[in-house]
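Quick question, first post here. What does this chain look like in 3D?
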Amino acid sequence: MSNGPETPAPGSRVSDYDYELPPGRIARYPVDQRDQSRLLVVYRDGSPFRHLSFTDLKTLVSAGDVLVVNESRVLPVRLLGRKPTGAPAEILLLRPTSSGPGWSGTTPGGEETWEALVKPGGKLKPGRIVEIAPDLSLEILDSTPEGGRIVRLLTELSAEEALHLHGHMPLPPYIDREDEELDRERYQTVYARNPGSVAAPTAGLHFTDGLLDEMALRGVEVAKVSLHVGVGTFRPVEVEDPSDHVMHTEAFQIPVRTAEAVNRCRTTGGKVWAVGTTVVRTLESSFGSDGRVRPGPGETRLFVRPPYRFRVVDHLITNFHLPRSTLLMLVAAFAGYDRIREAYEAAMEKGYRFYSYGDAMAIV
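> Answer (accepted):
Ran it through. Tokens below.
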């Protein structure tokens, strides 16, 4: 007979992922040199933590390993303008509604429509115009079921040209400052190629071309995927039972060469390193019934949380994540819930910097 309701397993409730971050621990600016961030090495077998510099990552990888990075690129999609009344308005472009994954289908002429978030939401109803600059305005066309808007760019420029001239980098709200010129470079990985994200895949911000070259000389293969990070990455989980949370959909692309590299690595005894949670979700979502990673385009709503059996990824490079976030749950699934709590406590004790511009963790 049962003596009462069972106690939920640690890590099975969203409130298990709450933690208090000391004031001032959020990194508002990047370190001077990308690969001089700190690196907390977390061993899943319970071995003592190691406190290294990110450039020391090259000593952890081995010949025959594959390092998989996300080459999605962030565009300056935050637009600041004014309504006809002169009141300020803000538009965050999410994705074109007329093209597939990515933003490569932009055309000049101002006929492109986008899904967007707007502020103030109550005032920017369909039919309103927001002027961003003399050569760029936006027309609000419709509302979306999620509370966003469909907007049309009114410009003779291509969308990418208009954003380059007038857009701001969409820094996460917790950075709590306006974007600056340095963010155009530093809120972007050195290997970013495919435009499509509204947030950087931040685990990759620590890499330099030099560090990647050193790894290649050691016999490590660098393979690339694209997963375009959506705005849902900023949002905390509002429910207590993770199974009640609805994941947002993100588009990804796995080149044939990358699938072949990962599959070859897994059969020859090498280890697959995922640079960031976006890479984890991409690779795990593309794992086929034949035990191989499939190339090609796809979409994922995969919610990785304890307990989850990882089928592709052996090691994970990641940053420190927000409380109550799906990203923190994924990391806990990879390292073990108790182990990741210990790691975060050690990081706080040792003065690590948190979130997008903060320090890194390698779970091995």
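The two ends are 42 Å apart (CA to CA).
The chain has a mean pLDDT of 91.
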